[in-house]
Amino acid sequence: MHSFGYRANAVLTFAVTILAVICTIASISDNFNSATPTAEVQVSNINWFQKQPNGDDVVGLTLNISANLQSLFTWNTKQVFVFLAAEYETPQNSLNQVSLWDGIIPAKEHAKFVIQTTNKYHFTDQGSNLRGKEFNLTLHWHVMPKTGKMSANRIVMTGYRLPDKYR
Amino acid sequence: MGYIGETIDSIKSIQIRQLITQGVSLGMIVTSALIIWKALMCFTGSESPVVVVLSGSMEPGFKRGDILFLHMSNDPIRAGEIVVFNVDGREIPIVHRVIKVHERQETGEVDVLTKGDNNFGDDRLLYAQGQLWLQRHHIMGRAVGFLPYVGWVTIIMTEKPIIKYVLIGALGLLVITSKD
């Protein structure tokens, strides 16, 4: 009844249960954090704007991104993945989301930043609809916890209108 | 003599009963594990509600051996979500992030492009020959929850099958020999 194996089993079971409870509480505690991130993005230049040989439009941009995502960090936050997407509608597609830039923020100290960057991924349309097209710039973030539930949200920012002609 | 014979009979019958009880309790453990798994499948709507991260392509977010909980709802797939997808001709599902979405106006079908956070380029090299986009049917679920390290148990067991057999044997022996 009180053999070594029996006691070892009881201790192990108890330890695992406590660990599970603490992980759950840590994940739930994230809900009490009300985040108020701010961000601003400007398209400072259209570097190039062409039609690819396969008929799809492609754009190269320079972006100024400034953001303060420090309020997203809690004690259960491992990292915040942040990305900037262009969102627009075309006659063919009801929604196009194209990621232009992304980054991983490993700690709260790095969550306030100002950068100037060209688009990291090709801004390519499915087809040739980008001339004179107005698109929304949206900053999305994805909070990855140390344990538990992941969460995501975004800020939709002012749009930008692409030029009427290729260059 | 009759007394001894009776005693032997009673011992024999006890052993048979005990054997049956132990067999039933072993069966209960196995079936309850199966019930939990199938119930999870029902609630999450995903054919594999829990996956183990096998590669470092999503580091530092997900490391090898971490566990992800999946959910498959009818919500449309959007950029930034972490999805688990199967590529034709590949057995092992991949966990990567969606970076581009094109959703059709009339049919609502989606073209999705994914990329691992830690990879340099997008996933077109991982897709089947000539495949440019993932469609809805490739996607098994999206990751909603995260638990670190626990997946190492399954990684070790698949890579070193001996440990698995030793563990199952020891557990089986424990159940059969236990007196309580």
What are the main properties of this structure?
heterodimer; A: 167 residues; alpha+beta; Immunoglobulin-like; 2 domains; four-stranded antiparallel β-sheet; B: 180 residues; Umud Fragment, subunit A; six-stranded antiparallel β-sheet; 3 helices; 6 strands; protease (chain B); Signal peptidase complex catalytic subunit SEC11 (chain B); Peptidase_S26B (chain B)
Question: How do the strands and helices of this protein lay out in sequence?
Answer:
The complex is a heterodimer of chains A (167) and B (180).
Chain A: H1 4-29, E1 38-51, E2 57-68, E3 77-88, E4 93-105, E5 112-118, E6 123-124, E7 134-145, E8 148-149, E9 151-161
Antiparallel strand pairs in A: 1-2, 2-5, 2-6, 3-4, 3-7, 7-9
Chain B: H1 2-44, E1 50-52, E2 67-71, E3 82-85, E4 94-104, E5 110-115, E6 139-147, H2 152-159, H3 161-177
Antiparallel strand pairs in B: 1-2, 2-6, 3-4, 3-6, 4-5
Helix pairs in contact in B: 2-3
Give a verbal description of the structure.
The complex is a heterodimer of chains A (167) and B (180). Chain A is of the alpha+beta class and 167 residues long. Chain A contains 1 helix and 9 strands, in the order αβββββββββ. Chain A is elongated and about 85 Å long. The model of chain A has no long low-confidence stretch (mean pLDDT 90). Chain B is α+β, with helices and mostly antiparallel strands and 180 residues long. Chain B has a domain at 50-149: Umud Fragment, subunit A (Ribbon). Chain B has a 6-stranded antiparallel β-sheet with strand order 1-2-6-3-4-5. In chain B, a hairpin with a 5-residue loop joins β4 and β5. The model of chain B has no long low-confidence stretch (mean pLDDT 85). Chain B: It is an enzyme of class 3 (hydrolase). Chain B: Keywords: Hydrolase, Membrane, Protease, Signal-anchor, Transmembrane, Transmembrane helix. Chain B: Pfam families: Peptidase_S24. Chain B: It is a single-pass type II membrane protein.
